[in-house]
Amino acid sequence: MRSWFSEPSRLHSKAFRTWQDRVAWAVIASGLVLSILPGHVRHRLALPFQTVLLAPLRGATTLRRELTTRKSENDRLSRLAIKLAVENARLRTLARLTSEVRMEGENLVRAPILVRDLATLKHYLIVSRGTRHSSAVGSPALTPGGVIGRVVAVGAHQSLVQTILHPESRIAGMVRRSRASGIVRPVDARQLTLDYIDRGTEVNPGDTVVTSGLGGLFPRGLLLGTVESVRDEPGRLFKTINVRPAASISTIEQVFLFVLPRRARAGRSDDWLDNIREQEVAIPGERTGR
Amino acid sequence: MKHLLNLVVIYALFLVHAALTPWSPDLLLLVVVIIALHEKRLPATLYGAWAGLLAGLTGPETLGTSLFLHAGLGYGIASLHTIAYRSRWYLLLLVAAGLLLKVVTGFAIGVQPAWGPQLVVSMLLTLALALPAESAARRALHRQ
Hints:
The structure holds two protein chains of two kinds. By secondary structure, chain A is of the alpha+beta class. Chain A is built from five helices and 14 strands. The longest helix of chain A has 46 residues, at 55-100. The radius of gyration of chain A is 41 Å and the shape is rod-shaped. Chain B contains six helices and no strands. Helices cover 81% and strands 0% of the residues of chain B. In chain B, helix 1 packs antiparallel against helix 2 and helix 3 runs antiparallel to helix 4. By secondary structure, chain B is mainly α.
């Protein structure tokens, strides 16, 4: 077995007394001297070396911090962009309503929803507009999607809207294509039905049902829903027509109240029904019947 | 040129070491040991001093001690190298001795972090890297 020290005699040779060794010892000794210097002197000596030699590390740290900051900023902006896109879509929808549904001589009042009825969430809404904002009992409530309901009670700053899904709701409606008129009422919390349509009248699934304007409460031509199914049962006078509501009542955040004429607003509902003039709603592509 | 390249390599390893701390292997100690095995006493001492200076910059309280320790290791290993038989275990023994010396010195001057998983992992990584690093260095130095 070989020894680790192959040339032990060299340990004591003159080979360790060259000028190179002396320089090496001086370097090692300088470390020893540095280590016994006071702390503030060491810090002062280290400072220029730190400034130069640690610059890449500082740069990398700054870059990493900057990247982290930018990433969080990017995430925040992405979230904001999504929020703004949603807001933009909502505003575009509102703009479409005001541009497509032109009320002749009448106005719409935007009314954010304050409260929904806690039992069904679909029968009543309380909106934050009242008589101070020209809301009145009977004012139709609309959204870009279609008819929501009508105001049944009104205060100075709030109105109670009864939706079209309320069991007592009845609205005069008609099939847009065939102009067959009937009464739209709710079947359950999700669906409407169009009553009093003769069996001989042609109605197909997919047909659009709009308000007929009869009764004077709702303007003609407002979207109510789409025919989902038509049943022609023997022994019955009328067709059984199921209608899917156009507006999603459970997801809306605001409605538009249709401002009634001043005379109509002043009187009781029995009085102003006689005075209300015919209100026409012009929808692009819609035949008004005049 | 070779010496300049070695200094740059040590500096680059110092940057890597500082970026990976505290889970990094002790790259500076490793490079000092490996270079000392292939160099004469003065260059080994100077490389050790350079590595010690860099290691001390991150905490100026260890500046002198670190310089002394690394330079001393370089000189000692380069001296021993000329008279001792070399083997794989010899390298591991030197690296382990260097690590132990560093830890003991750190404890002695009160700057060594408490004995914990980070220190153990760092030492084990250093030992694990010793042999591959030495063979890589041998190839590189012979090419030069």
